[in-house]
Amino acid sequence: MSGHAAIEVRQASKTYLSKQDQVDALTAVSFRVMPREFVTLVGTSGCGKSTVLSMIAGLIFPTEGEVRLFHEPVRGPSRRIGYMLQQDCLLDWRTVEQNIALGLEIQGQKSDEMMKHARYLLNELGLGHTLYQYPSQLSGGMRQRVALVRTLAVQPDVLLLDEPFSALDYQNKLHLEMLVTRVLKQQGMPALLVTHDLEEALAVSDRILVMGGQPGTIRRTMEIPNDLRKANPLDARAHPLFRPLFQELWGEIDQ
Amino acid sequence: MKKKHHKPHRSQLHANYVRRIRIQEFWVVFTRIALLVLFIAGWEYSADAGWIDPFLFSSPSRITELFIQMAGSGNLFHDILVTTVETILGFALGTLGGISLATLIWASPFLSRVLDPYLVVLNSMPKVALGPLFIVAIGAGYGSVLAMGVAITIIITTLVIHTSFQSVDRNYLRLARSFGASRGQLFRKIIFPASIPDMIAALKVNVGLSWVGVIVGEFLVSKDGLGHLIIYGFQVFNLNLVLMSLLIVAVCATVMYKIVYWLEKRLLKYRMAE
Ligand SMILES: Nc1ncnc2c1ncn2[C@@H]1O[C@H](COP(=O)(O)OP(=O)(O)OP(=O)(O)O)[C@@H](O)[C@H]1O
Ligand SMILES: [Mg+2]
């Protein structure tokens, strides 16, 4: 079974070192994300959620333990990963078209065909008309969608999302949740999401990992029932199972 | 029908708004010009009426007269040309040199840390005090004047641009690195373009600085140029000449500043958008 995992984290610990002191951020974190699976990390601020994502993205390395991506140990940033940060990080001197081309340029795979695909994605997210605009001309929700297109344009095999919707208002957030879950389902892409928003976690995930502690570790795993998984993020929120699960999750976190 | 009504109403509102802004703009420009005319007329009148000593403070008519006379002989344009070329060269070399040095230092974090205190010391030193050194090393000619123009701009540019390189949003760098960017790519795709606004700001400051460097340089060594005219006018107590040269420097510096401003507008299009 473990042989099929898209992401596998094994007994990973992380200690940040600086001149003044050391911070033990994570200890003995283990979990897997299977193909097509949408897994969410929740937990109090500072429990190491972003650290986990950075490790998987190959930006930092575990002090102990191991991270594997499609069986391969992670040794640095991989083309198979699309990493979406909390801030949209659009380059304000580039047009939308140039922004969504950034990843392709860096990876040296910018071609007419890839750009066509990127523009197609932009269209899909309802932003086809913004191609030649600058980020300063876009609203927060639009910017976040452009950032999503930029991430997807390199055609990754896994998506890492670090609180990508937390800066948005409720309506935009719901809208983007629907878009992301739809795109992921379409492409059968596994994803790992970090969020503060427990409702969001319940509405989009197949499985929720509750983190906590100092240094952080995984306290509990919550499997989402099939009915809820199948519903889209909007319908899931109205599902009879939703409230009880929310209460349960709330109880896990707030201790 | 409602829509039809709606539209002319709005554009009427807008037209009024634009008109109000136009009127404001008109008064600003008008007052500006009036101030200048008033100043020149007052100056001329005070000199004629004997309120101020025209031998010390000259007068607009005397300056114009001298200008026409010197322009006729053609020497004046030679002086203007010499100083302008020196300034543009000093400005360009200082700015480009500063940006290149900053890039070099950025490329090696180790070098950056080693050189840091030296740069700070060099920067706090009055660069015009290096004049005698340049004259000894390069000779009393255009070279020394140019060196002054460069010296006065290059260190501060290096410092400012290097700081700018280092203060690029760390999330931009994380983003690029998550795509697998190399250090060179980080620099070309993120750090350098992100620092362009600061480079333009440096350009603007350097326009002024390079004029200082070149004029002081000409005070010290040169046999021609506007700086030479100023110091020569001072020595023979021809204040007409001094003031005329000053005015020409002001005009040339303004033109250069305007060109940089135009460049800024072109390069920072994206900031002007909406
Ligand atoms: N670069 C770093 N250097 C030193 N300590 C760090 C660094 N990054 C994170 N930490 C520390 O590691 C711990 C975990 O940080 P992390 O950012 O992973 O938490 P998080 O769960 O993502 O928090 P939040 O929900 O607030 O984003 C924190 O105590 C933090 O202060
Ligand atoms: Mg975080």
TrEMBL record, chain A:
Q: Tell me a Gene Ontology molecular-function term this record carries.
A: ATP binding
ABC transporter domain span: 7-238
Entry keyword Nucleotide-binding: yes
Q: Does the keyword Methyltransferase apply?
A: no
Record keywords: ATP-binding, Nucleotide-binding, Transport
Q: Name one Pfam family in it.
A: ABC_tran
Q: What is this protein called?
A: ABC transporter ATP-binding protein
Q: Which organism is it from?
A: Marinithermofilum abyssi
UniProtKB/TrEMBL annotation, chain B:
Where the record annotates domain ABC transmembrane type-1, the positions are 76-260
Gene Ontology terms, cellular component aspect?
Answer: plasma membrane
Record keywords, A-Z = Cell membrane, Membrane, Transmembrane, Transmembrane helix, Transport
Regions that span the bilayer: 26-43, 88-108, 128-161, 199-221, 241-263
Classification via SUPFAM superfamilies: MetI-like (SSF161098)
Annotated Gene3D superfamilies: MetI-like
* Localisation per UniProt entry: Cell membrane
Membrane topology, from the record: Multi-pass membrane protein
InterPro entries attached to this UniProt entry: MetI-like, MetI-like_sf
Keyword hit for Transmembrane = yes
Q: What is this protein called?
A: Putative ABC transporter permease protein YtlD
